[in-house]
Amino acid sequence: MGPAPAEVVGHKPLDGGWGWMVVLGAHISIGFAYSTPKALSIFFKAIQEDLDASYSEIAWISSIMLAVMYAGGPVSSVLVSHFGSRPIVMVGGLMCAVSMVTASFGSSIVYLYLSIGIIGGCGLCFNLNASLTIISKYFLTKRPLANGLAMAGSPVFLCVLAPVNQFLLGQFGWRGSLLILGGVMLNSCVAGALMRPITPPPVPSSGAPTKNGDQPDKRNTKMKQRCMKKATKFVDLTFFNDRGFVIYLIGNVMYIFGAYAPIVFLSAYAISQGVEEYSAAYLLSIMGFVDMFVRPGTGLLANSKWIRARVQYLFSFAMIFNGTCHLLCPLMKSYPLLVAYAVFFGMGFGMVFALIFECLMDLMGNQRFPSAVGLVTIIECFPMLLGPPAAGFLVDIFGDYKYLFFMCGGVIVTGGLFLFIMNMYNYHMLEKENLGKTRKPNPTSLENPDGANNSEEQMELNETKGTETNTAREDPGLERDKETI
Amino acid sequence: MAASPWEGEGGEVRRCSERRQKPSHAEDRGTTAMTSSWKQQLVQVLLVLVSCGHGDTKTAAPTPTPLPPVTPLKQDAKSAVLTGKNFTERVELSSPVNMTLSCTWKGDQDKPPNITGHWRKDGQEIQDSRVTVMLEDENYKLIQVFSVVSEKDLGNYSCVFGNEARIDFILEVLQMGEKRDKPVVSYIRDFVVMTCKVEENKPIPTTWNWYTSNGTDKEQINTTASKRFKIVSEERETKLKVKDLTLDDAGQYYCGAVYPIGTSVGQVELKVITFMEPLKPFITILIEVVVLVAAILLYERSRAKKDSAEGTQTNAEQNTEPQGDDKGAEGNDSVRQRK
């Protein structure tokens, strides 16, 4: 079949040109997605006073927003597969704007939960998922760098939004600020406009029949079978058969469980060590600032010849580094040491987050990534929501912050070690499978896991033929699809 | 001679903020209690002097009496050591107290055996407070007990050695913890809630009052008179809720925590704005977004037209292929339908 292999290969990804504008769009979009829940906390005190709510009731707004953003993953990935990234990001931007504007008129906490939490969370979810997908469509050889640059949006926007929010709060109060913030979030639509679709929406694995104009007969049968498949595509459990995916998922869950709690409690810990309140808040800014530069840097590093084929190892190293930082934190008793900790924390955090989606793309390949990321985010929802309260619980029982850091560091280091060891196993198994399967056409696939031998050209060739680390397994997947046609 | 018990926390000059964090009352009281037996005598003698000097009519006795006929006041003490020329110490009080202030001065280069010391209140010399201070252990000491009962007893008490060396004790009402420097912003016809809080480790005020500024005066807010105002006070917290705001409601509001010794005042500024104010930036951003999106999409369309124009001229076959930048550049249904 003519077109199908072409689709497998993917239209050769641009890897540049308009792709960089798409990266800019993704940067903005991801920036809003990750920084908004955190930046909103600046308004909490004012909202708390006006609506007469307790601090934990108000904090739920952020939690609901984050939870919906992650839980909406599967829905978002189906929509992105159907309609492409551009409309979804624009709809997401509109939803965010609507949520903020309606929230500005709110007079009860539940109203805010619904408007900011649920509608806003949905909007951000669309933003996140669609941006990641389009990067995977536009980039292949330079993908780690593109990912790093796009994910850098999160610290950049946080650094920008935090002072802006403070200013708005002083000028307009929390209602006016939410209104203006809604307008600012409309810029996601601009980001969406930048995300020019590279091929029309339909992707072989989920059908919206427009593209294959030269096969009108097959269209109807395709549609029927696709409709049946659609239901299962929301949560595609076949992913769990994929060894690499399961390894990634377990490591990630462990990471997310321990990742956010230190951020939440860092200022409180610093204050308990005798640091002034203002300087303690400054620590988080330092961390964010370092994060901003580390993410693209890590992307650049992961792009390099030596690391590219072994990017999973870099990911596990980054996790172990991050976890070790946390384990050492209780030793940091003075302010300069805490600043050093914040710097290293920023480095570790940035490295992990620059690679977190790149690794999934590397494992899943272009076609399966949208649904995979949906599944991953909805599963990550649970450790993300459980992590900080569990850590807070530890602090309450023991009355000491060091157990929090021990727990988080320990969980993250374990996750990193797990990933490292299991990926060694995985790469080994893949080599064996590659040797077995693709003996005839691609002798180069043998060299593939050993990236050092590949010249740039060869790597590109291999990769466009879909022989990345795990895409050897993609072929069976797509052959499955072809058979059902 | 052991170090004086009044030098409770050591003999260095210390900053007021540090002092405030450590509750020193308890410690001082503890140490003074130990030696109060023989000091009591001295205290009473000095009290007599002081009450005579102050002309303190509250004690309701024109002739010197050993003790003022009120409920026995709590004892407290503050001390400071001066090494330079000046030192200031802030003391926060909430209820009436007999405050023993002691000053220790290390002296100048030349240390005469006697110098004259006196006390001042708010810059004015207290009558009959001049005493001759002997040099003891290389230090000069001035100790005085003041009965601080009402708001007018608060102020700046200074002990002066000779003519220059001075330690100021600023006795004032408990200050409220959080100073809010940012105004509270709200909208016309909306409601607003202003809060004042007292920190956890500080004593609870007897009652709370709210005042609004009327020119230069403070006017107490009467909740029965104006229905728009509602005051809800708990022990450590008070809330003023103002409904149906108008532009005139903007300005300074004061919350007063009433203690036996006086009222501690906190300040909240209220700003009332119309809804148009945030709407203007919002509309600006909206316009900017629409312009940018339109520009990007138009640019894309024009490029697509250019590409497809070239495409149909050069290579008809390539147009039917479902891939390539050609297709990607056209996000348009119309172009697709043409195929």
Average pLDDT rating of chain A: 81
Shape summary of chain B: elongated
Q: Could you tell me the strand content of chain B as a percent range?
A: 35-45%
Output the radius of gyration of chain B: 36 Å
The average pLDDT of chain B is 72
The CATH class assignment of chain A is Mainly Alpha
Enumerate the spans of chain B where pLDDT stays under 50 for 5 or more consecutive residues. Answer: 1-36, 52-70, 321-339
Order of helices and strands of chain B: HHEEEEEEEEEEEEEEEEEHHHH
Named CATH architecture of one domain in chain B: Sandwich
Q: What value does the Rg of chain A take, in angstroms?
A: 23 Å
Number of strands of chain A: 0
Query: What's the shape of chain A?
Result: globular
Distance between the termini of chain A: 11 Å
CATH topology of one domain in chain B: Immunoglobulin-like
* CATH homologous superfamily title of one domain in chain B: Immunoglobulins
What's the number of domains of chain A? 1
CATH homologous superfamily identity of chain A: MFS general substrate transporter like domains
Structural class assignment of chain B = alpha+beta
Task: Report on the architecture of this protein.
- The complex is a heterodimer of chains A (485) and B (339).
- In chain A, 53% of the residues are buried.
- Chain A has helices at 3-9, 18-39, 44-51, 55-71, 73-83, 85-103, 109-138, 143-151, 153-185, 187-194, 216-233, 243-272, 277-303, 305-308, 311-328, 335-398, 402-437, 444-447, 456-464, 474-484.
- In chain A, helix 8 crosses helix 16, helix 12 (243-272) crosses helix 16 and helix 12 packs antiparallel against helix 17 (402-437).
- Chain A has a single domain (19-198, 234-435), classed as Up-down Bundle (Growth Hormone, Chain: A), CATH 1.20.1250.20.
- Chain A contains 20 helices and no strands.
- Chain B is 27% helix and 36% strand.
- Chain B contains six helices and 17 strands.
- Chain B has helices spanning 16-21, 24-54, 276-314, 316-320, 325-329, 333-338, and strands at 74-82, 86-93, 97-105, 114-121, 124-125, 131-136, 139-148, 155-161, 165-173, 184-187, 192-197, 207-214, 217-220, 229-233, 237-242, 251-259, 262-273.
- The longest helix of chain B is centred in the last third of the chain and has 39 residues, at 276-314.
- The interface between A and B is large, with 40 and 41 residues.
